[in-house]
Amino acid sequence: MASLPPVYSFPPLYTRQPNSLTRRQQISTWIDIISQYCKGKKIWYMSADGTVIDDDRSENGKIDNEDSKEVGKNLFNNEEIQRSVPQVFIDEIWSQMVKEGKCLPIDQSGRKSNNSTTTRYFILWKNLDNWASLILQWFEDSGKLNQVITLYELSESDETLSWEFHGMPENLLYYSLKPLCDRNRATMLKDENGKVIAIKVV
Amino acid sequence: MASLPPVYSFPPLYTRQPNSLTRRQQISTWIDIISQYCKGKKIWYMSADGTVIDDDRSENGKIDNEDSKEVGKNLFNNEEIQRSVPQVFIDEIWSQMVKEGKCLPIDQSGRKSNNSTTTRYFILWKNLDNWASLILQWFEDSGKLNQVITLYELSESDETLSWEFHGMPENLLYYSLKPLCDRNRATMLKDENGKVIAIKVV
């Protein structure tokens, strides 16, 4: 299945529509395109200008499928039809996407940010509650309840290979696990610097 | 999954775009919307004006899920945003869709037609060759090679229930099976009136 639908090449999508009702549909279309694209290519992050960025795993020397992820591609710049979305309109799209819980603004340090410090977005093609439920299901299905599991294991272990959250960056895992803690289904464990590194689901 | 994407409510999609390159993308978007919608709702036919029509099985007293199929809905008329596609542009969309093998023009008698006699279209969310391969796979998987199987069985039998071609109208089955005959993998059997009613796959 192609990750970008035909409408991606429809020029009117790139011009900020003056009518607010029309623009709302235009923004919904963009949000749908972004979500489906990232889901299809398993892209976790985009920079504020719409560039696909690789997650921090590359720092560990793991390059994996950078090509298929099209790292460096700017989704809002369609070279084929030579159209791009103006930054002011891109910001409007992000803002609505945040409001709908379909992306999470992240600052330089990798934490959830307020608008002024946002440098990139986690693309939540599933919302955080759905990620939490899926991860909970893994703990149940694989008999890992009441055990300490590191975020690294959750993301990288062969045991999660066939699960959609496999490969999820650790800070996104943190936000995806938080709903389980809020529901008292899990406790997070920190290292000596206060960084969450593991979780126990009960 | 919703059957109609957000772009379906994007007003510029309803105005025939004057620029031919833009219009080509616009038409691709419409073809994508029609295919996905029909696939999602298992709709086999649309009338030339875009109305969802029920297949001939209703004549046998089988009503099944008319509601979920939204029989009578006109896809090119979006009441929610009060926009509709002009018929001249609808014809342009069908014409391109036929060219791409993504729908089949059908006349009053249920046969493949030329443009002047078309009253409705079979929506081919899979192309005919792909349908042929899928049906061939069913014959192989269920050990039905070298047996005479009626088109009615293929479409309605419990044995095909979990297969995507289950419920396919018999005349569409005929066109979907033809590639197997062309490849000498199958022979069609006719009744006394010359109507194809069964097939033997070897």
What is this structure, in a nutshell?
Two copies of one chain form a homodimer. The first copy, chain A, has 202 residues and is of the alpha+beta class. Helices cover 36% and strands 17% of the residues of chain A.
Describe this protein's structure:
The structure is a homodimer of 202-residue chains. The first copy, chain A, has 202 residues and is an alpha+beta fold. Chain A has two domains: 6-123, "Winged helix" DNA-binding domain. Chain C. Domain 1 (Arc Repressor Mutant, subunit A, Orthogonal Bundle); 128-201, Arc Repressor Mutant, subunit A. Chain A has helices at residues 20-41, 66-69, 87-99, 128-141, 151-156, 170-182, and strands spanning 45-47, 52-53, 77-78, 83-84, 103-107, 118-123, 148-150, 186-190, 196-201. The first copy, chain A, has a four-stranded antiparallel beta sheet with strand order 2-1-6-5. Chain A has a three-stranded antiparallel beta sheet with strand order 7-9-8. The longest helix of chain A has 22 residues, at 20-41. The first copy, chain A, is elongated and about 55 Å long. Chains A, B: It comes from Saccharomyces uvarum (Yeast). Chains A, B: Keywords: Protein transport, Transport. Chains A, B: This is Vacuolar protein-sorting-associated protein 25. Chains A, B: Belongs to the VPS25 family.
